[in-house]
Write a structure and sequence with these properties.
Length: 496
C-alpha cells in the first residue's frame, strides 16, 4: 500500500466525508465555492493576534517549503523554553503545523487557534491529529488546548487579548481519540489506494454534505437528481429533506401528495401546475393603509469583526456601516435618494451611521424595511450603546413597516418565487426581465454577504480598488431600496 501525504486539513475532510479526499484529488474542477476572502482574512488575523498570548515567540514561515519549515522547527525546538508558532512536523507522511507550541524544558503544549466562539467537534479531531503526529515523533505532549473567541468580551479603548480569547484544555479528550486517529489514517490510505482516478467511490449524500462545513462538491454529487427536487423546497429543514430523500420521495411529483407543511405543498403545486399568482388584496390593502407619509424606504448593510475594532463592541457584533434611503415626502411627490457609507478607518462608524440616519429621516413617517427583525435589532442596539440617541432609534422602530410580511404569509405568491420570500426571489418574480432591477447585472456586489465581505477587506485595498468597491457597495444598497419602492408600487397596482 502506498501511503499518501496527509495534512491535518485533509484528515478533517475525511472525518466529514471520505469521498471529499478523492474528489479533491481527481475532480477539483467540480468545486463550487463562495468567495471567502474575508473569512480567510478573519482566520489569519485571529491566528496572528493569538500568537502573542504567551509573550515573545519565534515564527516558522508558512510560505516556505515543508522541508524548510520542518528544519526550522527542529532548530527552534533546541532553544527551549520558548514559544514557537506554526511549528511544523511530519510523521510517516502525516503532516501538521501547530498554531502555538509552548516548548518547555519538560515537554510541549499544543494550542489550536480558532476564530469561532465555541468548540466544534471537528476542532477536537484537528487537535487530536496534531497530538498523534507529535507524540509519535517522541515529543512529550503535556497539554492540548483550543483557543477561541470570547463573544462576551466588550472592548475598551485598548484591546485585551487575554480577555478576547478563551483557552480550554482538551487533553483528556485528545488522549481518548488516539486509537481512532491511528485507525482512520490506515483507512484513508487504504481508501485512496483502492480508488484510483478511474474508480470513483460510491457514496450517497447525507447531512455530512453540510456539517461541519458546506461541501464544495454538493452540485457534483447531486447532478443526477431530478430538477426541481426535495432539496429545492424553501424553508424545509435539511433533516426533513434528507428523510424524504431516503424514503425515495425526491422529485416534486413524488412529494405532491405527502403530508408536509402546506407552504411546501403550495410551492410544489404552483411549480407542477403552473398556477396563476395568488394575491390576497385585503391583506395587502391593510398594509398599504397603515403607511404614513413621508415614506422612508431604508435598507442597512452590516459587517462583523471577529476582533472588535470599535470601542464598546463585542466580537462578531453586527456593525451597520451603510444604508440606502428612498424618500417619498407626500403622495405624488418625486422620489428622493440619500445614502451613507462609512469610511473603512472610521472609529465611530455606528454613531456616524445613526446620526446621518436621524438627519435624513427627521419626520414621523413610515420607516419601510424588508425583514424588520434586522433593522429594528440594529436600532435597539444603537439606542443601548448611545443613550442620547435612544429616543430617535425608538422612534424609527415605532414607525417600522415590514414589506416582507405579505410574501412571508403567502398573501402574495407566484411560482417564480420558488417558495422563498427573499427579496432576491420576489423582485424578479414581480418584475421579470427588468434590467434596472436585476441584481445579476450589478458590477461587483450582488448580495448581502458580498457587501459585508467587501467592506471588511476595504482597508487592505489600494485607493483605486477602494474607489471601485465603494461605488459597487452604493449601487448594490441603492438597488435594495429601489426594489422596495417597486414592491410598494406593485402592491398599489394589484389592489386597484
Amino acid at each position: 500500500m502506498n501511503r499518501i501525504f496527509l495534512s491535518k486539513s485533509s484528515y478533517c475532510k475525511y472525518v466529514q466525508c471520505e469521498k471529499i479526499l478523492w474528489l479533491n484529488k481527481y475532480k477539483k474542477d467540480s468545486t463550487i465555492t463562495e468567495n471567502n476572502e474575508s473569512v480567510f482574512e478573519t482566520g489569519r488575523e485571529v491566528g496572528e493576534l493569538a500568537k502573542g498570548l504567551f509573550g515573545d515567540y519565534v515564527d516558522v514561515p508558512v510560505n516556505e517549503k515543508i522541508t524548510v519549515r520542518i528544519e526550522k522547527t527542529e532548530e527552534f525546538l533546541k532553544n527551549k523554553p520558548n514559544v514557537i508558532t506554526e511549528a511544523s512536523f511530519i510523521y510517516d507522511k502525516n503532516f501538521c503545523s501547530v498554531d502555538i507550541l509552548k516548548n518547555d524544558s519538560d515537554g510541549v503544549e499544543i494550542y489550536e487557534v480558532k476564530s469561532s466562539t465555541k468548540i466544534e467537534d471537528i476542532y477536537l479531531d484537528d487537535a487530536s491529529y496534531q497530538y498523534f503526529v507529535l507524540s509519535n515523533l517522541g515529543l512529550n505532549v503535556k497539554k492540548v488546548a483550543i483557543v477561541y473567541i470570547n463573544n462576551e468580551y466588550i472592548r475598551n479603548k485598548e484591546l485585551d487579548i487575554n480577555q478576547l480569547f478563551n483557552i480550554e484544555d482538551i487533553t483528556s479528550i485528545v488522549l481518548e481519540k488516539q486509537d481512532e486517529i491511528r485507525d482512520n489514517i490506515n483507512i484513508i490510505n487504504n481508501y485512496m489506494d483502492e480508488h484510483g482516478k478511474n474508480n470513483e467511490p460510491i457514496k450517497d449524500i447525507g447531512k455530512y454534505c453540510f456539517y461541519p462545513y458546506s461541501c464544495a462538491f454538493w452540485q457534483y454529487c447531486t447532478k443526477d437528481l431530478p430538477t426541481p427536487n426535495v432539496f429545492d423546497i424553501s424553508g424545509m429543514q435539511k433533516r426533513s429533506k434528507f428523510k424524504k430523500y431516503y424514503e425515495g420521495k425526491i422529485s416534486f411529483e413524488d412529494l405532491e401528495h405527502e403530508k408536509i407543511n402546506q407552504k411546501y405543498l403550495e410551492q410544489i403545486d404552483f411549480e407542477l401546475n403552473n398556477r396563476e399568482p395568488k394575491i390576497n388584496k385585503k391583506a395587502i390593502n391593510a398594509l398599504l393603509s397603515s403607511l404614513r407619509y413621508p415614506l422612508y424606504f431604508i435598507d442597512y448593510e452590516s459587517c462583523q469583526y471577529a476582533i472588535p475594532e470599535l470601542e464598546g463592541t463585542k466580537p462578531y457584533q453586527q456593525i451597520p456601516f451603510q444604508y440606502s434611503l428612498h424618500i417619498i415626502e407626500e403622495e405624488g411627490a418625486p422620489i428622493e435618494h440619500k445614502e451613507f457609507l462609512a469610511e473603512a478607518d472610521d472609529e465611530n462608524i455606528i454613531r456616524n451611521f445613526a446620526e446621518s440616519m436621524i438627519k435624513d429621516m427627521p419626520e414621523d413617517g413610515s420607516v419601510i424595511v424588508y425583514n424588520k427583525t434586522f433593522e429594528s435589532t440594529r436600532n435597539k442596539e444603537i439606542g443601548e450603546m448611545y443613550l442620547d440617541l435612544k429616543y430617535e432609534m425608538d422612534r424609527f422602530n415605532n414607525n417600522i413597516v415590514d414589506l416582507m410580511i405579505p410574501f412571508r404569509n403567502r398573501d402574495y405568491y407566484t411560482k417564480e418565487m420558488k417558495g422563498s420570500y427573499s427579496i432576491k426571489y420576489v423582485l424578479p418574480a414581480l418584475y421579470p426581465n427588468d434590467s434596472e432591477l436585476d441584481y445579476k447585472s450589478l458590477s461587483l456586489i450582488h448580495k448581502g454577504d458580498e457587501a459585508s465581505n467587501a467592506f471588511l477587506t476595504l482597508k487592505d485595498k489600494s485607493l483605486e480598488e477602494q474607489k471601485v468597491i465603494r461605488k459597487a457597495l452604493l449601487e448594490y444598497c441603492k438597488l435594495d431600496t429601489l426594489a422596495m419602492v417597486k414592491i410598494w408600487e406593485k402592491f398599489i397596482e394589484v389592489t386597484k
